[in-house]
Write a structure and sequence with these properties.
Layout: H1 2-13, H2 22-27, H3 33-45, H4 47-58, E1 69-70, E2 78-79, E3 84-85, H5 87-97, E4 104-109, E5 115-119, H6 120-136, E6 144-148, H7 153-165, E7 168-171, H8 178-188, E8 192-196, E9 198-201, E10 204-207, H9 209-217, E11 226-230, E12 244-246, H10 247-252, E13 263-264, E14 270-274, E15 282-286, H11 289-301, E16 310-313, H12 320-332, E17 336-340, H13 351-359, E18 363-366, H14 368-380, E19 396-400, H15 406-416, E20 423-426, E21 460-463, E22 476-480, E23 490-491, H16 495-502, E24 512-520, E25 527-532, E26 536-539, E27 542-545, H17 546-554, E28 559-569, E29 573-582, H18 589-606, E30 615-618, H19 632-640, H20 655-661
Helix pairs in contact: 3-4, 5-6, 5-12, 6-7, 8-9, 11-12, 14-15
The structure holds ligand 6R9.
Length: 664
């Protein structure tokens, strides 16, 4: 636990405290620690009553539920199961009834800078038409639909339309390769794929539809009967007769009225693949009722959302942050949100700041990796420094995806928030559905680098390897002791893996294992996340399994063996470093460089560009124990460029370390 101890020292060293500004507190949904504590107390005293009250107050139920939490099949917990609702109804129709029909739901800014606005009424009509279109293709409740789309209003429409008819969507990030897409289409058993001809990012057109074609040609995709294509650029694509249909043709004759499919609160709203510690990504299955409840509640509690806010989450709909804080949460809360197609560095690294100025964004939610790269860019080019922009509309900032280092936090707070905006450092995961630990902007004193305290109703704790509670000040393993409504329901098609991954017997089988290490401050009880404790890397806030990358590498005909580890990186948090043994002799010099490039491109093809190793080192062998196990902890030290001081007595081939020390 040496990493945990380092984090412990750092957590101790951080003594700066920042209080919510008085103006913010005055109108905050949770305006004091007393108010926060009262909610926590309510949850502790009557856990089910607490959640039942919130579910009834925040969601529209077509039929009320009679049981709040069913633990009889734990850890397959069920929430509000006999209640009937529809997620899209809660996001759209409810707003039409609440006087928000003409309110702007989405401000869409294209890569080019072109802006279009969609009201709640427009969005409702688009979703209903597309939902009817999906029905006309024979898609119905329980079917799985894969969505492989760019950031667009149409992407949101596709997700909401699935929700409206009770189809379960599985969004695949547009940066994944044909092979990754095919694996997900097969695993989820999709009957349709929704895509676009191309996507536009940073001034470039990138293919989507041709990648779908390639994926479907890889085989085992016979269940896919339809491919629906949103025309984004008009780029050249092939249309397969009887299978492919343009989105605009599909909706042209459809009615803008579509009665929602009322589903059980437990009906799977979506399945989203994420990396785990084996080579195969996990299909994280989420519910409808519990998930939506937490999406709307965290909009209210963490983001203090108000009718006048302009909310901007910069995530992609291909990740869970885009699901909860673009497609569902902001709409369920009746907010106006910005949806951005492009990248933060195009046409220059002032894009985010100029968009905040232009659209008068009030709440801005982004990832530490973006902040760090924009700090660098601003240092190098005064013309795009945030002080050149009017950011006075902002009242709240958020961070998500990875630990935010105190220096980046301070820069964000001072340069973007101008010292007037609370920063909510939100810790959560694909599996948790929504925020778990975060400061409340009108209540919690903030400490840079700490996600502070769990939200009311979330029973976070830190335990040792045997499941025993650890005292504050001692680093350990993060768990959640009670089920909560928006938690993962299962891994699609693999309940055993679900149980083993998240509710392992070593911890008693009934606490949720997050997969992260954490430590609580001795005095404040504040949590600081110390990073993953499994073989999962966090590169620019993207989760990557080391095994996934290793499997991709060894699939290359040149490669005999590969081991992948993370190494700290100033911008991306962690960077991927691969140690590779080729089937032929170890290459050096230019040849090594050339093969490394070839392998990087190979990984991009196998998984996607986000999985490309930053560094590849070649060896005659890998450091192994006498029983043949690769000693990854030694590789981690080598990747960092540090001297090995640990015990290497179990190492069979110590000489190999010298060879692997040198970067190519
Ligand atoms: C929402 C999301 C989850 C992993 C998680 C942890 C890391 C996310 C964090 C954070 C420290 C934060 N993580 N937010 N670590 N502080 N505020 O990112 O989901 O892609 O599943 O990643 O990201 O390691 O376990 P996901």
């Amino acid at each position: 636990m040496s990493d945990l101890n380092t984090a412990q020292a750092e957590a101790k060293a951080e003594s700066r405290v920042f209080y919510p500004p008085a103006a913010f507190v005055a109108n905050a949904a949770i305006p004091s620690m007393d108010a926060y504590n009262a909610l926590c107390k309510e949850a502790e005293q009557d856990y089910e009553g607490f959640w039942a009250r919130l579910a009834r107050e925040n969601l529209h139920w077509h039929k009320d539920f009679s049981t709040t939490l069913d633990e009889s099949t734990a850890p397959m917990y069920k929430w509000f199961e006999d209640g009937l609702l529809n997620v899209s109804y809660n996001c759209l129709d409810v707003n039409l009834q609440n006087g928000n029909a003409d309110k702007v739901a989405v401000i869409f800014e294209a890569d080019s800078g072109e802006v279009s606005k969609v009201t709640y009424k427009d969005l409702h009509a688009k979703v209903c038409q597309f939902a009817n279109g999906l029905k006309s293709l024979g898609i119905s409740k329980g079917d799985r639909v894969v969505i492989y789309m760019p950031m667009s209003v149409e992407g949101i429409v596709a997700m909401q339309a699935c929700a409206r008819i009770g189809a379960t969507h599985s969004v695949v990030f547009g940066g994944f390769s044909a092979k990754s897409l095919q694996e997900r289409i097969v695993d989820v058993g999709a009957v349709a794929v929704i895509t676009a001809d191309e996507q536009v990012r940073g001034g470039k057109h990138l293919p989507l539809k041709s990648i779908v074609d390639e994926a479907l040609n890889l085989g085992d995709c016979e269940k896919v009967k339809s491919v629906v294509i949103y025309k984004r650029t008009g780029g050249n694509i092939n249309l397969a007769d009887g299978r492919d249909v343009w989105m605009h043709d599909l909706v042209a004759t459809q009615s803008a009225v579509c009665e929602p499919e009322w589903v059980s609160a437990e009906h799977p709203l979506f399945i989203l693949y994420t990396s785990g510690s084996t080579g195969k990504p996990k299909g994280v299955q989420h519910s409808s009722g519990g998930y939506l409840l937490w999406a709307i509640l965290t909009m209210k509690w963490t983001f203090d959302i108000k009718p006048s806010d302009v909310f901007w989450c910069t995530a992609d709909i291909g990740w869970v942050t885009g699901h909860t804080y673009i497609t569902y949460g902001p709409l369920a809360a009746g907010a106006t949100e910005i949806v951005f197609e492009g990248v933060p560095t195009f046409p220059n690294a002032g894009r985010f700041w100029s968009m905040i100025e232009k659209h008068k964004a009030t709440i801005f939610y982004t990832a530490p990796t973006a902040i760090r790269s924009l700090i660098k860019a601003a240092d190098g080019d005064a013309s795009i420094h945030p002080d050149k922009f009017d950011l006075s509309s902002l009242r709240l900032l958020g961070s998500v995806g990875e630990p935010i280092n105190p220096e980046a936090w301070m820069w964000y707070y001072n340069n973007i928030g101008r010292g007037n905006c609370p920063v909510v450092d939100t810790f959560w995961q694909t599996e948790t559905g929504g925020h778990m630990m975060t400061p409340l902007p009108g209540a919690t004193p903030m400490v840079p680098g700490s996600c502070t305290l769990p939200l009311p109703g979330i029973m976070s704790a830190i335990v040792d390897e045997t499941g025993y509670d650890l005292p504050n000040g001692q680093g350990g393993i993060l768990v959640v002791k009670r089920p909560w409504p928006s938690m993962i329901r299962t891994i699609w098609g693999d309940p055993d893996r679900f149980k083993k991954s998240y509710f392992p017997e070593e911890f008693g089988g009934n606490v949720y294992l997050a997969g992260d290490g954490a430590i609580r401050n001795k005095d404040t009880g504040y949590f600081t996340i110390t990073g993953r404790i499994d073989d999962v890397l966090n590169v620019s806030g993207h989760r990557m399994g080391t095994m996934e990358i290793e499997s991709a590498l060894v699939a290359n005909p040149l490669v005999a063996e590969a081991a992948v580890v993370g190494k700290p990186d100033d911008t991306t948090g962690e960077a991927i470093c691969a140690f590779v043994v080729l089937k032929r002799t170890r290459p050096t010099g230019d040849e090594a460089k050339q093969i490394a490039t070839e392998l990087r491109n190979w990984v991009a093809k196998e998984i996607g560009p986000i999985a490309k190793p930053k560094e590849i080192r070649f060896g005659d062998n890998l450091p192994k124990t006498r029983s043949g196990k690769i000693m990854r902890r030694l590789l981690r030290v080598l990747a960092k460029g540090e001297e090995i001081t640990q015990d290497i007595s179990t190492l069979e081939n110590p000489a190999i370390l010298e060879q692997l020390k040198q970067a190519q």
